[in-house]
């Protein structure tokens, strides 16, 4: 379908039409979609999924280069069994014109807002349009052509904050939207990378932190936390950088059930190697390393820390023969199936965590792996003793009328290697 769209690469408008003759139509395509004129919506909440909204999205977005009538018909009618697509299309166009005239008024020369020419649809030059996507792209192109680094950075930062979310995110089921969404997302990524490079050269870590946090919020699960961490390390805020590393990995698990990407992990590991501390005597260093001895209970940690401990114990066990078991605890329903989501699962997960903490030793290590799941490293223990631990957790977790339970999977980390 995209092949029928004459999106000329040499003709990019500024986002604000040059031939302004009145108040512009303002179309917001990043994040949430809206279509406004004089502060009023042209497509009410109920009309957001209407053929009028689909038509206006395409015609206004491709207002300069035009969009083929066939491409519009494909979006409007899709696989629907329409007896006469041409007639149906003319009806949609007629209704759109009436709606526009009611809101905008009739054009002085009696012309149409949506112009048909040689099988293409265009938007009239008589009514200006402001589109965030066009503004974003124009700012990006200006920045690419700019040789002054200060001005280039200014343009890139303005472009960055113009991008406020996915292009027509609620409509990515349409092929033309999916293609444009991907194109703008790539430009956004390039924008962030170029800004970071300029700020890195300036050692402007305060601005870099803001950029990293903004990019992470606008495009989550895209590894931008590495930018924020680099900025924090550059400012010597090592503890905050370390917490960000742990929190990011945990969020990836809890929200998506996935590990952070290898790119993020490699980046954070590389940045971690850059930590520098002032010269101190070994006694003071050891004092800083020691945890509060008054703290009771097992060592509860984030997944990256748990992973490091697991790998280190695996190496130590190879030489010492020390027995270490990995236990996976999963909340299950009355049929023994893992529970997936819901408020009840969150409540049960919290209870299971408390039961585990009160059932294992200070020397053991525990991590909340995801919703309804925990990982435990049990040190210097036998397989039979692992079963005793399971019974202890069950006693703490289960109540007399409770239909849910916990399933356990246990394996030696030596066997796992």
Characterise the protein shown here.
This protein has 417 residues and is an alpha+beta fold. It is built from 15 helices and twelve strands. A hairpin with a 5-residue loop joins strand 1 and strand 2. Helix 7 packs antiparallel against helix 8 and helix 8 runs parallel beside helix 10. It starts with 24 loop residues before the first strand and ends with a helix.
At a glance:
With 417 residues, this protein is of the alpha+beta class.
Please describe the topology of this protein.
Layout: E1 25-28, E2 34-37, E3 40-41, H1 51-61, E4 67-68, H2 69-77, H3 85-104, E5 114-117, E6 120-123, E7 129-131, H4 132-145, H5 149-162, H6 175-202, H7 205-218, H8 225-234, H9 238-256, H10 262-272, H11 282-289, E8 299-300, H12 303-320, E9 324-332, H13 343-357, E10 365-370, E11 373-379, H14 383-397, E12 405-412, H15 413-416
Helix pairs in contact: 4-5, 5-6, 6-7, 7-8, 8-9, 8-10, 13-14
- The oligomeric status of these chains comes to single chain
Beta fraction: 5-15%
Structural class: alpha+beta
Shape: elongated
Task: Please list the strands of the largest sheet in the order they lie side by side.
Answer: 8-10-11-9-12
What gyration radius follows from the Cα positions, in whole Å? 29 Å
Task: Name a few traits of the molecule.
5-stranded mixed sheet; 417 residues; alpha+beta; disordered N terminus; 15 helices
């Amino acid at each position: 379908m995209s092949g029928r769209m004459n999106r000329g690469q040499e003709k990019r408008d500024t986002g604000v039409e040059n031939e302004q003759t009145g108040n512009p139509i303002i179309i917001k395509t990043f994040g949430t979609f809206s279509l406004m004129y004089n502060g009023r919506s042209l497509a009410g909440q109920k009309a957001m999924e209407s053929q009028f909204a689909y038509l206006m999205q395409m015609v206004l977005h491709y207002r300069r280069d035009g969009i083929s009538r066939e491409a519009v018909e494909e979006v409007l009618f899709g696989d629907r069994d329409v007896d006469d697509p041409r007639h149906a299309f003319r009806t949609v166009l007629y209704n759109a014109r009436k709606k526009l005239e009611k809101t905008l008024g009739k054009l002085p020369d009696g012309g149409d807002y949506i112009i048909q020419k040689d099988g293409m649809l265009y938007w009239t030059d008589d009514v200006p349009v402001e589109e965030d996507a066009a503004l974003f792209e124009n700012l990006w192109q200006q920045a690419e052509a700019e040789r002054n680094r200060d001005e280039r950075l200014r343009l890139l930062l303005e472009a960055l904050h113009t991008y406020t979310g996915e292009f027509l995110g609620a409509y990515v089921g349409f092929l033309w939207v999916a293609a444009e969404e991907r194109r703008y997302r790539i430009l956004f990524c390039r924008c962030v990378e170029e800004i970071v490079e300029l700020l890195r050269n300036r050692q402007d870590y305060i601005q870099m932190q803001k950029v990293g946090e903004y990019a992470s919020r606008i495009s989550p699960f895209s590894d931008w936390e590495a930018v924020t961490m680099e900025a924090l390390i550059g400012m010597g805020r090592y503890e905050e950088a370390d917490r960000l590393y742990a929190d990011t990995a945990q969020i990836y698990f809890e929200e998506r059930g996935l590990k952070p990407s290898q790119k993020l992990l490699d980046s954070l590991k590389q940045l971690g190697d850059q930590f520098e501390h002032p010269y101190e005597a070994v006694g003071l260093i050891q004092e800083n390393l020691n945890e509060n001895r008054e703290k009771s209970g097992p060592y509860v940690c984030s997944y990256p820390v748990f992973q490091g401990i697991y790998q280190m114990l695996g190496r130590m066990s190879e030489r010492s023969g020390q027995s270490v078991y990995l236990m996976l605890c999963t909340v299950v329903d009355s049929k023994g199936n893992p529970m997936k989501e819901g408020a009840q699962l969150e409540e049960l997960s919290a209870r299971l965590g408390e039961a585990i903490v009160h059932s294992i030793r200070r020397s053991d290590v525990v991590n909340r792996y995801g919703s309804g799941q925990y990982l435990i490293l049990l040190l210097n223990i036998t397989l039979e003793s692992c079963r005793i631990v399971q019974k202890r957790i069950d006693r703490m977790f289960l109540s007399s009328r409770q239909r849910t339970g916990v399933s356990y999977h246990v394996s030696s980390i030596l066997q796992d290697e």
